[in-house]
Amino acid sequence: MYALGVRIAPAAALLVAVATLPRASCGGGTIVYTNDFNGPIGTTYPEWSAARYSWTRNEAGTIEAGAGTERVTNVDSANGSQRFLGELGGPIVLTQPPYDRPHFVRVDESIELSLRRLPSHTSMTLDFDLYILKSWDGDSPGVGPDRWSVRLADAPPLLDATFSNNLKTAFEGSFQSYPIAGSAPQAGAVAVKTLGYGFWFGDATYHFSLSVAHSSESATWTFASSLFEGKPEQARGTRDESWGLDNVRVAVR
Question: Is 227 exposed, middle or buried (0-12, 13-18, 19+ CB in 10 A)?
Fold first, then answer.
């Protein structure tokens, strides 16, 4: 059960079952999952679900709503310095010029990490690196908002915030709500422009450690983005805005 009083979704709803993972003791807690995604390029992971995505109909009527799933693997960063789970953010969705809000679409995508046969415990901690890649626009009223969240099963999110790599705050209002409302683009990042992404203002790396009361023998973590996108002509999907996960660790106490 959870301190937030929300039950886990039934295991049958998961797209991929998780294998039992080796456990190790660390700092008084027990590590039940760890992954740096440094296997051969294109590796898939059975404990991670296929990505589920959907997009909206745009105001101009040139794009109709749709949905689907896509395979999730590890990839190399643009400069080859990191291998991580990604790139996520949704499929390519073709739009028509001009570059204006009526032609944009909102693309939502989520993946899940499923853990089972957990040892007896009363709390759970999730650690991970989040890579915010390319032209995220934060709270921009014209080309945003661009949001990212993580939650345990169907519980309220432990993190739900906008992120921005768009430094044109005076022109586009592209502030972000992490770590607090009205923060400058890339605020709170542990590194910027280290992954080699040249589109817009590159990339920002964030590290998170999130803890929650938990005692069930299974857990499902959901990681999700909601991106408002629209470049002229064809450059859609993760070519515009994307994200990835690295150094994921789950421990229980």
Answer: buried
Task: Extract the runs of DSSP E, i.e. beta strands, from the chain.
Answer: 24-26, 29-35, 51-55, 66-70, 73-76, 83-88, 105-115, 123-134, 147-152, 159-162, 191-192, 203-213, 219-229, 241-252
Three-state secondary structure readout of 5-44:
CCCCCCHHHCCCCCCCCCCEEECCEEEEEEECCCCCCCCC
- Residue 60's nearest CA partner among 102, 97, 100 is 102
Task: Using the structure block, give the residue that is written with the tokens 């586009």.
Answer: 172
**Token pair recorded at residue 81:** 């310095």
Mean pLDDT for each 10-residue chunk of the chain (253 residues)?
A: 32 28 54 98 97 91 90 96 95 70 90 97 97 96 95 93 96 97 98 88 94 96 90 51 96 96
Contacts of 64 by beta carbon, 8 Å cutoff, 6+ apart? 57
Q: Give the whole-angstrom CA distance, residue 38 versus residue 21.
A: 17
Kindly write down the DSSP assignment for every residue of 111-122, as one continuous string: EEEEE-SPPS-S
The encoded tokens of residue 121 equal 């415990």
Cα–Cα distance measured from residue 45 to residue 217, given in angstroms and rounded to the nearest whole number: 21
Model pLDDT for residues 49-87, shown as the tens digit of each residue: 999 999 998 888 888 899 999 999 999 999 999 999 999
Q: Smallest Cα–Cα separation from 228: which of 96, 93, 131?
A: 93
